[in-house]
Design brief:
alpha+beta; two-stranded parallel ribbon; 6 helices; 8 strands
């Protein structure tokens, strides 16, 4: 996919109500899952015990839901750019649902729809995004999240 480039925050804000970008695919590896387990202390066997997970309910180890969610900044980074924006910060989430397990070795991509963009202090914009993280070949998304971000020129 081609990275979408906007000159200003106003240019991006003009896209409210539209799907703004679709990311490239990202492959989930066992190494990522293991590193996430180390970072968070979540060593549940469905994530890190490959042999046991093969016999478990999903037939393979699966990524942590929060690992999938933590890819949001990466999806945004590889998908869109605002030339005249020096900084963006994660302001939170309004809603998150983990709808499908993500087996290790599968591929994910994000569809990003801009729901709203409102002015904030320091000439910034608070943007609410509906991010649908698709699981390649699956009938349902892996995750749907409403992400709130603040960007500044």
């Amino acid at each position: 996919m081609t990275k979408k480039t906007f000159q200003t925050l106003s240019d991006l804000a003009a896209c409210v109500g539209q799907e703004v970008a679709v990311s490239d695919w990202i492959t989930i590896t066992q190494e990522q899952v293991n590193q996430f387990a180390e970072a968070t202390g979540d060593h549940q066997w469905i994530h890190v015990d490959v042999e046991r997970a093969k016999k478990g309910p999903f037939g393979a180890p699966i990524a942590h839901g929060f690992l999938t969610l933590s890819l949001l900044p990466r999806f945004f980074d590889i998908s869109l750019e605002v030339v005249e924006s020096r900084m963006g910060v994660n302001y939170g989430l309004n809603k998150v649902r983990f709808m499908s397990p993500v087996p290790v070795g599968s591929r994910l991509r994000a569809r990003m729809k801009l729901l709203s963009s409102d002015p904030i202090d320091n000439n910034g914009q608070q943007m609410v995004w509906e991010v649908t993280i698709e699981l390649e070949g699956a009938g349902k998304p892996a995750c749907v999240a409403e992400s709130v971000a603040r960007r500044y020129p």
